Amino acid sequence: MTDPIGIRKYDYIEFYVGSAKMVAYWYAKGLGLDITAYAGPETGVYDRTSYYLTGNDLKFVITSGLQPTTYDCWGFITHHGDGVKRWAIEVDDVEAAYAYATSHTGISARRPEKLSDENGFVMEAAIKLYDDTELVYINYDNYKGKFKPGFGESVLEIEVSRKDTGIIAIDHIVGNVRENEMNHWATYFNKTMGFETFIDFKPGDIGTQYSALLSKVVKSAGFKIRNPINEPFEGKKKSQIQEYIEQYYGSGVQHIAIRTEDIIKTISALRANGIEFLNVPDTYYEAMRKRKDLGLEEDLNSLEKLGILFDKESNGYLLQLFTKPTGDRPTFFFEFIQRHGDSQGFGKGNFQALFEAIERDQGLRGNL
Ligand code: FE2
User: Fold this and answer.
1) Where exactly does CATH 3.10.180.10 map onto the chain?
2) Does domain 7-139 bear CATH number 3.40.1010.10?
């Protein structure tokens, strides 16, 4: 498998939210990220305000409109609530990646632009993704500033005390799409960026008695980008993916998984910082203790205390845990994941316990 667009790695993720200042505080306090840069009237940007938060290889941009006419922000939020507007991939050559994508069925969202200031220039372009989402190509080779033109020193004068969470980088980003959309978007990734489908969950593979879904995972060469796409499937009651579609009013990003090398430290710190997680049933750990093939380096009691999930894969294992939805609507959430050995999957063995946990919350919302 070759990479036709010169992918380096995941870059930033931009959220459109109702109040960027408040949400930036949550990211600083809860996830332990630093507010590294800021864009707004003080930096010459008058229609919106953005906080740029970083930690190791993680880059998040939290944006709100400042004027009634900042329509791309307010239109998005009115429709979807707080959510992921765009996610970026750092590439060797933005114009080449964009040209490849748009000549292979990619729909243009923004033609290649050279964004300049006294620190040099950044190249950026974007193609469309699910509904109102965008996939950005970016390159900073000729830029020395903190993020990109328009951004300067943060104006927030707060000291946020929090525990170091040890989170490192994006592991995967997941899209939820309507019934019959999954194949379209999997093909779109594969054509526009030379990805390939490497996991295909069929009816009956994933789902509890009630809530079912279909899922395809596309990936770039060398697993630099891996992107699952879910669609609802008919079950006895409403699929959790259907709940997302109805509450988000369309297709979009469901969750972002963040990698750590020490999930016990990460989840301990995140819990101390006030992050809410899904609760796994007690029977989950009873079943784990009966298994002889675990081969865990971590202490099972610590995993149980923190509610961390485990899944064995052919050449390794993974540990993971999911937050509750981070905003007001039951749409977007985070996952934290640690991979051991050559683990490349997504915790299929945990889907049952996980979905039961999601369904309990879905039932409380009256959406089951
Ligand atoms: Fe995931």
Assistant:
1) 7-139, 167-365
2) no
CA of 255 to the centre of ligand 1 (A): 7
Q: Which of 66-70, 270-274, 344-348 has the lowest mean pLDDT?
A: 344-348
* CATH architecture for residues 167-365: Roll (3.10)
pTM for the complete prediction?
Answer: 0.95
Chain centroid to CA 265: how far? 21
Cβ contact 128:109 at 8 Å? yes
CA pseudo-torsion sign 96, 58, 37, 277 = positive
In terms of pLDDT, which residue wins out, 169 or 235? 169
Ligand 1 centroid – CA 254 distance (Å):
9
Q: What residues contact residue 141 under an 8 Å CB cut-off, 6+ apart?
A: none
- What are the pLDDT digits (tens) for 95-134? 999 999 999 999 999 999 999 999 999 999 999 999 999 9
* Torsion angles phi and psi, residue 115, rounded to 5: -100, 115
Distance 20 CA to ligand 1 centre (A): 25
Structure token digits, residue 303:
């995993």
